[in-house]
Structures are given as C-alpha cells and as structure tokens.
Design brief:
Structural class: mainly alpha
Distance between the termini: 7 Å
Strand content: under 5%
Number of domains: 2
Largest sheet: none
Number of strands: 0
Helix content: 55-70%
Number of helices: 11
C-alpha cells in the first residue's frame, strides 16, 4: 500500500492495527512497529522512523527478527540509516550473523545478509552479490531495492554513469509492478542522468513475487 502511494489508507490501517495490537503484542507487535516506521519514512519523518525501530529491533535478538521475515530486514536497515541511528541497523546485521551460524542453508538469508552488509558498510561488492542472489531466487521486490541501493551508492563515486543500469532496472521493475511511489521516486533521478522513462503501468495487483 505504501509503495503504491496510498499514504492515507496506510495511516488508517496503521491506526486500526495499533488499536488492536494490545491483545496480540507477541504475535504482531513488530509488524506494527515496522508499519509505523515505514509510514513515517514515507512521509519524510526520518528521525521518527528510525526512533520507532530502535526500541523494537535494537535488542539484537535473532528470533524476534524472524517475526517479520527476511524480505523486510534490508528495509529496516535502510530506514535506520536514513534516520542517522545505526543501532537498529547494526542489531539486524548482528542477528543475521547469528542466524547464519545456526543455519546457512537458506539462500535468502545469505542474500539478505549481503544486502544488509552493503547498506551498513556502504559496500558495492556486497550489494552486487545480493543482486546476483536475488536474481536466482526470483524475488523482484528485493532485486529492485538492491538495484536502487547500489545505484545510490555508485552515485557518490567519480563516475556517476555506473549507477545508470542499476537505477534503470529498479525503475523498470517498479513500473512493471505498478508500484507508483517507487517509480515516481526513481523517474526524476533517471531524467537527471539523461535516461528517458515512460509513465508507470497501473495494476491492481503486481506480478508473481510482488506481495502487498
């Protein structure tokens, strides 16, 4: 809902979830915290978004992290870093290392770890590794996010043209899925890089692999 730009609806759903979360704190508490942080981040309140994460994700407990699933961990780190609060980001990274020590057989865990490490340490090689792993695992949302993250990192280098193919791919994935907010964020950036983009395609549902 947030990625499609429906902020008002997202805010209404969040209020309903917060009102109901008291009876389901153990099961849904982290989801509500994550939703609150994502909404604040979408509204440009980066400090508030990071602060929302710190208390819930900053304890470094790996099993709590599993409550929200691997696909949300890089986003958690991204929000924390945008808000200049690295404690939650480092906690996610530490928890990932513990999880891998317990079981390194799941490909998604390794891909997410590379993505998180790339964000936390500003490491283009780690982000490139995450992109490769996401491609083989058929995970379009994660692939789009990693491409955009790598593009942003390469934009700080001397040769900014290196970012173009990564940002362009992120934009194409967002357009194909009808994820309006992501596409509208990426389009101006591509135009500044001299890449022409079309209007996003509008879908009521995304293609396989794109969850709500």
């Amino acid at each position: 809902m947030l990625r499609r730009g429906y902020l008002v609806k997202a805010r209404d759903h969040l209020r309903a979830a917060e009102a109901d979360s008291g009876t389901h704190t153990q099961r849904y508490g982290l989801w509500v915290v994550l939703a609150r942080a994502c909404l604040a981040d979408a509204e440009g309140q980066r400090g508030a978004a990071a602060a929302a994460l710190t208390g819930a994700f900053g304890d470094g407990e790996p099993t709590r992290l599993l409550t929200v699933g691997p696909s949300h961990w890089p986003g958690t780190v991204r929000i924390a870093l945008r808000g200049a609060d690295s404690s939650a980001a480092q906690a996610v990274s530490d928890a990932l290392r513990t999880l891998i020590a317990w079981d390194d057989s799941r490909q998604i865990i390794g891909a997410v770890r590379a993505h998180v490490d790339g964000l936390l340490h500003r490491d283009p090689r780690a982000l490139a590794s995450a992109i490769t792993a996401y491609r083989s695992g058929d995970r379009p949302p994660a692939l789009a996010a990693a491409c955009e993250d790598l593009g942003e990192l390469l934009a700080t280098s001397a040769d900014t043209t290196a970012e173009i193919p990564h940002v362009e791919e992120a934009g194409e994935l967002a357009s194909a899925s009808g994820v309006l907010r992501d596409h509208e964020r990426i389009r101006p950036r591509l135009r500044r890089l001299g890449v022409r983009t079309g209007a996003p395609r509008h879908h009521t549902t995304g293609p396989p692999g794109w969850g709500p």
